[in-house]
Specification:
The complex is a heterodimer of chains A (280) and B (489).
Chain A: E1 2-11, E2 14-24, E3 27-32, H1 39-46, E4 54-59, H2 67-74, E5 77-80, H3 92-102, H4 108-121, H5 137-149, E6 155-159, H6 167-180, E7 185-189, H7 193-199, E8 202-207, E9 210-215, H8 217-222, E10 228-231, E11 240-243, E12 249-252, E13 260-261, H9 266-274, H10 276-279
Chain B: H1 7-23, H2 26-42, H3 53-60, H4 62-77, H5 84-89, H6 95-127, H7 138-160, H8 166-180, H9 206-225, H10 232-254, H11 273-280, E1 286-290, E2 293-297, H12 305-317, H13 321-324, E3 330-332, E4 348-350, H14 357-372, E5 390-391, H15 396-405, E6 417-418, E7 424-425, E8 429-430, H16 433-444, H17 448-454, H18 456-459, H19 466-472
Parallel strand pairs in B: 2-3, 3-4, 5-8
Antiparallel strand pairs in B: 1-2, 6-7
The chains are: A alpha/beta (280), B mainly alpha (489).
Chain lengths: 280, 489
Amino acid sequence: MIHIKDLSKSYGRRRALDGLDLTLGIGVTGLLGPNGAGKTTLLRCLATTLAPSGGSIDAYGLNPANPVQRTVLRRRLGYLPQDPGFYPHFTAFDLVDYVAILKEMTDRERRHIEVRRVLAEVGLTEQARVRTGRLSGGMRQRLALAQALLGEPDLLILDEPTVGLDPEQRMSFRALVSRLGESRTVVLSTHQTEDVAALCERVVVMRAGRAVFDGTPGELAGVATGQVWLSDEAPTASRVFWRTADGRYRTLGQRPPTGDATAPGVEDGYLVLLGEEVAA
Amino acid sequence: MTATRGIGGVTRQLLWFETRRLLRHPLVWGATLLVLALQTYLSRGQQPHWGVDPVRATGMSTCLAAAVLVVASLAASRDRQHGMPESLAGLPGRAEHRTRAILLATPSVAGLAAAVAVFGYLGIRLLSGPGAGRFDLWEPLTAIAASAFAATLGVAVGRWSRWLIAGPMVVAVLGYLIFTNNQNGSAGWLLPVMQEYHPDWADRPSGVHLVYVLALAVLFGGIALLRPRVRLAPAVVAVAALGVAVPSGAIAAAEPPFVQRTAGAFTIDDVDPRVRDRYHGPDTHRCSERRGITYCAYPGYEPWIPLWEEAMRPAVDALPATLRTHLPRVKQTAWTWYTGEDSGNPPLRTPMTWGHPDQRTALATDLAHWATGLHDSVSALSKVSLDAECDVRGQARTLVALWVAGQVSPPEAPRRLKIDDRTELVYGARWGAAEVTYAELLLATPGVRERVHAHWDTLMKPTTTIVQALTLLGVDHGADAPMGATPCR
């Protein structure tokens, strides 16, 4: 279990995290929130790449503020940053192998088996000997995911992992992550509410460095119950509406004059929750 | 997956990883091949000299060291490039592991590449003919140490500088220092390699210079390890290395590689004391006789005696038999320290290197001038001017001298002959195009040798003209050859 207590992080006068409390267990947890909500900062603190300004993290009984315990924790986590790095002259295999060494996998033969395994997991076996500089954006994102999967970490931290993936790759990714979530803690941040709805047992919505919602995707959708409407004419009173594929208008908030109630989704709940901020 | 953990294990695996990458690096091996090819090309035709070739190969390995420095700096700064810091920050393997691995891998591969370049070159030299001079093992080892030094310097630059251009900039600065201080002045030996060294210079302090270069390598290795945080062990290593580098560098630089000749008359007192006994003491030469000629070489140069003999043989054979019985000895001369000795009984001189065509020409010309009596009329030491004071145009003996020397190399107008890297020889006699043309005519005419021998005494008189000589020798001539304005004795 991972216990986050009163976690705060400031960049100068701006507070990216503001007294966040969160407990994470086995399963897939999705972080949603607008830009600047503190999702990436939270994930970086969890990944031990950023020291918080205040509060504490207790991950499997380890305190990342302690250098020795931090190293032990790093052995148990896999991290896909928002902007993963690639050495353009390394092959895909070499890059993952390099990271594997830095994950202290020092038995060469077993390490290479592991490297081949994670490359196969993300569908890059054929590209193992291709230089990363020649891989497409989607392939590179999968390669970054592969290095995060090395060593079957107990804690998998994925910051916007589906960026750059095509629909087929996203389906594969969802299958992979949901399978991983059966036995370990997976935390991912995303702007894709469909991913959250499809993958996560739990959703945390963040705003201004705080968790404003913590529940299941169904519960998040439920926030919008009675506030989602379909109408034939563009509503004038609502600030959040859009024209759907069948030509009708989907509206959040007050019922439009000709509106029919409809079942809310995760995205509706998210939009209702963040309200004015999203509408703006 | 269960991983075998341990700091040493990570460093060891990173070391193998980095070594494998470096062993495949095109810049390292491209530079190695370039050094090998350039050095082989530049020494083409020259006989191996085991005292000079290793120093020059070490100097040439500067190109390889430059490549290594850039590669090492790029490898060391790699973790801060391409958006990798965030990816690497969450891993248990730390920057110290990466620095340590690169610091072990780059000097190893650089040393291997330098060994291939230098020992490969020396191997090629070994196959290219008999060598002379004394081999100093410290010299090629200095090439290896210099490449290792470039590697650790590159790692230090990569670790301490944020800019990728820093490595190439350090190469440019070091290159400038090396090429502007490559000779004369003791500061030259503070540089990691020597660009210039000559066979008659004093011995280099090669052992202490090697220690100095190794200490520099360790010093910069320690400096590299002080990033990202200062720790005691690398700091102690760096200070200790500095403690070795300063005195060894001071000793290496205490004496200049070469004492410049003073202007004016050059006497025995002007000879570098370190080599005075070697070149002017008793029993400086080892002499042996081959086919009636005595050849005197400095110790270690005896393998070249057959080459001198072979170069002279056609010119010797062109002389009358009576002359061949009392030919002067051939004596190796260190031109840098030549004080005009043996002027009363001048020998034929051969230099400290061998193989350049001009050296064969000079030896044959020396013989021809001696045989024809022109030897007294020439001053055969490094003159800068071609305005000879002695005009031997129009004389029959000039023609015969050109014909004798022409047995070895085609007759040509007077010019500076390159007899070693620092010495050019200008004969103090002047002849012209007519003499060259008639000498070529003689060389192309069958039966001339017997007629030259038959009329030798007449031909040798300074008053005998070329026209008279051509008539005596039965060679048709279309033009006259005027006598020189300043006839020689």
